[in-house]
């Protein structure tokens, strides 16, 4: 017996509804139906996940989804959410799963940080009329300039990644998202001159042509990893952890391991793809160092190696070890990072906000004199160009975006990715659903989003009197906090507004 009242209600205006049946056709969750006896459309609120597909595509706008007004007796300690979660577990006996990042009411520090602006003594820069450098190079930098006997600079730069702007598309595996979603990301990255990340599921053979704009990932399960794959991209990322589920491995259900996904991951169809929480050959920084150099060997030392870690409470010390391990880049993923499926308790209670973790890591590496050993990528709910600018000023070289990219493709954050019934054709492998995402349209929307962000980044930099991303990096003098306590300001390394 189900003891839970539906979370959302489908409100249908029957005066506007023409019984066209589009809502029924478009809902993969079967929340809409047609009652022959009454000759009208009906709905089952319990099946609605609030994806908005029906309300957006209804030609007469006869449908809207509202949050249910049904509540339990008021209790500050036992909220509706808590009671419903207990009911679900009492019914299923299973671990609660959630997608698309932490929705809880924790502080969002980006929203408490303001940017400085230039006035008289340090005039602003007009990006429409003056040079403004948005390009970024990622990789280890030499500690000093060396010259030969003729006085010419020696080229001792390690392999680098070159980006036209300080934003990349973060890791989302083929299988967790659809072929069309991957194609949209790959094509957009290529046109923009940035990178997209394969995630932990290997790389479909059709996408090898985008290799110059591809980061290939190596996770604990090693799915789809082989020499050709490792040499196909511009960089290799070792996934040690992710912000959406720190300390937890990956799991792609067997229902999604079909056709090309099975071939790409090199596992039988219908087999669950389980990446264990630890890499079973890594239990120390020395073990990680061994894998880094093994990957560099197989790629003839031509590609930078990224190590991706979740933002956790000892992240600065971990980053210090990674910076000495031979890695070229560290990717920090904050606790609001999106994911297709995470244990709800882990997602909502483990990890650190990316803002605090980023500031801690940048400080530690600078204090130890090893900041130039690595570049830093920040991820975990980067929502706008303002978040990008603030992240760079806190110490990042560039950022990863995942959820924002999927929202640009049509995602409405219904947070049921793990069910595989994504009505927008993104987090699904059901053919009739995947075709709803047209990669020709999808990649153009991503290009539009990034083009808008790049222009906004230049405008904000110009307003600060800064004409290059490199001059913004770690420049916390350009930041001020609002509504934060002294400890928060101390960790972030910024002053309160008005100081």
Mean pLDDT: 93
Superfamily (CATH H level) name of the largest domain:
Aldolase class I
| CATH topology descriptor of the largest domain | TIM Barrel
Question: Can you identify the CATH class of the largest domain?
Answer: Alpha Beta
The main pleated sheet reads as: 8 strands, parallel
| Beginning-to-end CA distance, first to last residue | 60 Å
Structural class designation: alpha/beta
Count of strand segments: 21
Please, how many domains? 2
* Binned strand content: 15-25%
> What is the second-level CATH architecture of the largest domain?
Alpha-Beta Barrel
- Globally, the shape reads globular
Quickly count the helices: 16
* Arrangement of strands in the largest sheet: 9-19-18-16-15-12-11-10
Low-confidence stretches: none
Helix content: 25-40%
């Amino acid at each position: 017996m189900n003891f839970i009242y539906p979370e959302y209600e489908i409100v249908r205006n029957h005066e506007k509804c023409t019984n066209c049946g589009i809502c029924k056709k478009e809902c993969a969750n079967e929340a809409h139906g047609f009652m022959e006896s009454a000759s009208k459309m009906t709905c089952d609120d319990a099946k609605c996940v609030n994806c908005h597909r029906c309300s957006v595509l209804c030609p007469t706008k006869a449908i809207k989804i509202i949050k249910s007004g049904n509540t339990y007796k008021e209790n500050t300690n036992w909220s509706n959410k808590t009671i419903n979660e207990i009911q679900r577990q009492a019914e299923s006996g299973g671990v609660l799963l959630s997608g698309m990042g932490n929705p809880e009411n924790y502080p969002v520090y980006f929203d408490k940080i303001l940017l400085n602006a230039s006035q008289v003594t340090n005039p602003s820069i007009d990006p429409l009329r003056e040079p403004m450098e948005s390009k970024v190079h990622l990789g280890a930098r030499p500690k000093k300039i060396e010259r030969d006997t003729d006085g010419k600079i020696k080229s001792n730069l390690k392999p680098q990644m070159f980006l036209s702007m300080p934003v990349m598309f973060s890791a989302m595996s083929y299988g967790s998202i659809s072929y069309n979603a991957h194609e949209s990301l790959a094509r957009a990255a290529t046109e923009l001159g940035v990178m997209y990340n394969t995630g932990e599921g290997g790389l479909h053979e059709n996408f090898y042509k985008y290799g110059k704009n591809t980061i290939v990932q190596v996770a604990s399960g090693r799915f789809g990893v082989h020499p050709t794959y490792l040499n196909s991209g511009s960089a290799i990322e070792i996934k040690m952890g992710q912000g959406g589920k720190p300390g937890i491995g990956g799991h792609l259900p067997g229902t999604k391991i079909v056709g090309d996904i099975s071939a790409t991951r090199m596992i039988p169809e219908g087999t669950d793809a389980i990446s264990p929480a630890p890499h079973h050959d890594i239990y120390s920084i020395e073990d990680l160092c061994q894998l880094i150099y093994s990957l560099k060997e197989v790629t003839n030392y031509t590609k930078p190696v990224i190590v991706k870690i979740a933002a956790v409470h000892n992240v600065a010390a971990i980053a210090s070890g990674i910076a000495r391990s031979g890695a070229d880049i560290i990717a920090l993923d904050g606790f609001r990072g999106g994911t297709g499926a995470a244990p709800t308790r882990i997602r909502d209670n483990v990890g650190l906000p990316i803002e605090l973790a980023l500031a801690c890591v940048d400080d530690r590496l600078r204090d130890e004199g090893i900041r130039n050993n690595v570049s830093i990528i920040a991820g975990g709910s980067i929502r706008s160009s303002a978040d990008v600018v603030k992240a760079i000023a806190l110490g990042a070289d560039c950022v990863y975006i995942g959820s924002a990219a999927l929202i640009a493709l049509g995602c409405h954050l219904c947070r049921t990715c793990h069910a595989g019934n994504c009505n927008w054709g993104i987090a699904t492998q059901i053919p009739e659903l995947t075709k709803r995402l047209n990669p020709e349209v999808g990649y153009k929307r991503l290009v539009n989003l990034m083009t808008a962000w790049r222009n906004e980044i230049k405008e904000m930099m110009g307003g600060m009197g800064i004409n290059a991303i490199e001059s913004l990096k770690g420049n916390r003098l350009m930041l001020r906090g609002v509504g934060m306590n002294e400890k928060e300001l101390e960790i972030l390394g910024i002053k309160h507004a008005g100081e």
